[in-house]
Design goal:
The chain is 16% helix and 27% strand. The protein is of the alpha+beta class.
């Protein structure tokens, strides 16, 4: 048997395999507070989703000829996905100007966000600008055309700073059916470099090796480079106290967050015969929802269960207030959130383009048997 041919791509592939082994040995274990069989299984699932995400969005990545690719889906979840939103991204560079075309597709909020320092597959270090649908023109059919980078324009334009490497799109919906699981949704997004230059060369050893390393960096930046949530410094909108939500606040230029959103997140913990009753009032805003995540910031199964609620899916009282019940089984009351039987998880609130103060949701653990109509 002859020796394998040594190439840069083979070396990069071995590095990726070594990384996956290290992730399994360290990240999927006590160092990251994973101690049970279900913890390990859940982490391996999350790892496979991240690996797929890296392959889909970063293995082939050329800012001179970008394409929008869907970031997350019902079967590919990471970094805080959302049942009511569809996200796309594409590589960009300040060396180019771009034209972007698309349509609202019935969304109640659409935005384009510049992400910085992602060219090697890393998570964004920060956001470098945002353009939402109040800042660009939409025709009677819901279509729009934007410019990215290049010469500044008074409208329908978003600049690209030197560290700009990616554009992320957000289409948010408030429909009875979760948009992220709705195959009829189609934003018809296109992106084209204004002066792409000659066709790129055929893939070679160097380009394939770079692509593999981008995938590896994508996975590493979302696993080994992220400290355990219990010990990490958290932004102001994240609570470490179970069942207690912090005041919703905007994230500033926090990487991967939306400039236009206010967030509030807390872990939930309930027993097998408990329910968590959350009360509050939807604020005046463009759209809002509450979602359940696991510890790896993956939504629960919104394609087959009710694990999130937007305003269109929520019954409110005559006083305009809601009561949302998080429980392991259906209580037969309005606004149930299905835990999938998980005693621990994360509850995440989003409020897009909020106006004025947002009432902080409150939560109380009650015995399931004592739930009564609100």
């Amino acid at each position: 048997m002859s020796d394998p041919i040594e190439t840069k791509s083979r070396q990069a592939l071995h590095e990726l395999l070594d990384l996956l082994r290290e992730v399994d040995e360290r990240w999927v274990g006590p160092e990251w507070n994973l101690t049970s069989e279900s913890d390990v299984v859940g982490a391996h699932r999350a790892l496979m989703h991240m690996l797929e995400g890296g392959l889909v969005t970063f293995f082939e990545s050329d800012p001179s000829r970008p394409r929008f690719r869907r970031i997350v889906s019902p079967s590919r979840k990471f970094t805080g996905d959302n049942a009511d939103a569809i996200y796309y991204d594409a590589p960009v560079s300040a060396a180019h100007g771009y034209v972007v075309r698309g349509r609202m597709d019935g969304a109640v909020y659409v935005s384009f966000t510049v992400e910085c320092d992602t060219d090697d597959g890393s998570m964004a270090s920060r956001t470098g600008g945002v353009l939402n649908d109040t800042q660009f023109d939409v025709d009677a059919g819901g279509r729009f055309e934007l410019r990215l980078g290049g010469a500044p324009q008074s409208r329908n334009w978003l600049g690209l700073e030197p560290n700009a490497t990616r554009i992320t799109t957000r289409h948010y919906y408030e429909n009875e059916r979760c948009a992220a699981a709705d195959p009829t949704r189609n934003a018809a997004l296109e992106i084209e470099a204004l002066e792409p230059g000659p066709p790129p060369p055929a893939p070679d050893d160097d380009s394939v090796a770079r692509g593999i390393r981008r995938v590896a960096r994508f996975v590493e930046s979302r696993t080994l480079n992220q400290p355990p949530m219990a010990s990490a410094e958290q932004p102001a909108f994240v609570s470490r106290v179970p069942n207690q939500f912090p005041k919703p606040v905007k994230p500033g230029d926090f990487g991967l967050a939306a400039f236009d959103a206010a967030y509030s997140m807390a872990p939930y913990v309930i027993g097998p015969e408990d329910a968590l009753v959350m009360t509050g009032r939807w604020p005046s805003c463009r759209c809002a929802n509450v979602s359940l995540w696991n510890r790896h910031m993956q939504t629960y199964d919104y394609a087959n269960r009710t694990v999130s609620r937007n305003r269109a899916q929520t019954t409110v009282g005559s006083d305009g207030r809601f009561r949302i019940i998080l429980a392991h089984r259906d209580p037969g009351l309005p606004n149930w959130l299905d835990t999938e039987g998980r005693p621990f998880g994360l509850v995440f609130w989003r409020f897009m383009l909020p106006e004025g103060e947002i009432e902080t949701p409150t939560a109380e653990v009650v015995p399931f048997a004592e739930l009564t109509p609100g």
